[in-house]
Amino acid sequence: MKEQENIEYIAQELMNSFIKLNNSRRKKRSDRFGIKRSEFFLLNLLYHNVDKEQGMKVSDISSALEITPAAVTHMINSLEDLGYVKRINHPTDRRVVLISLTQKGFELTEKMHQEFYEDSKDLVNYLGTDKSFELIKLLKLSIKFYQEKK
Q: How many Cβ atoms are within 10 Å of 85's Cβ, its own excluded?
């Protein structure tokens, strides 16, 4: 029984730590850039998967982000109003609309990546290299666990 109580305690502490880490990073990002976390994921997806002259279909974005097409459309509307994404007609199928980053969206995403990189360097300096490598190892193991659990 003691071992089960220990697992319960550790699981609760781990969950609380993830929540606190997530909340501390999210607040900073949303305040500085004025977009929602989900909108950043959409921008990031376009940044890494689309040539500037091409775009992605809403259905492909929906699948990649694992959210409904309606939620994607809502985010696109918001990001389009801010000038970060644009709709492009498909070159061969007039029924299909593609979503692409604007130059402003590309620059914002690069700026957010640079800030995240700088934050990561600060964390490495704070933890030191040994603890940073241990954190990387544990995070990769955690990712593997969740991928296999799917």
A: 25
Q: What is the pTM of this model?
A: 0.78
Q: What is the DSSP string of the chain?
A: -HHHHHHHHHHHHHHHHHHHHHHHHHHHHHHHH---HHHHHHHHHHHHH--TT--EEHHHHHHHHTS-HHHHHHHHHHHHHTTSEEEEE-SS-TT-EEEEE-HHHHHHHHHHHHHHHHHHHHHHHHH-HHHHHHHHHHHHHHHHHHHHH-
Tens of pLDDT, residue by residue over 14-73, are 989 988 887 776 555 555 788 988 899 999 999 998 765 688 999 999 999 999 999 999
Do 39 and 74 touch, CB atoms closer than 8 A? Answer: no
Average pLDDT over the chain, rounded to an integer: 89
Tell me the two tokens of residue 63.
């699948």
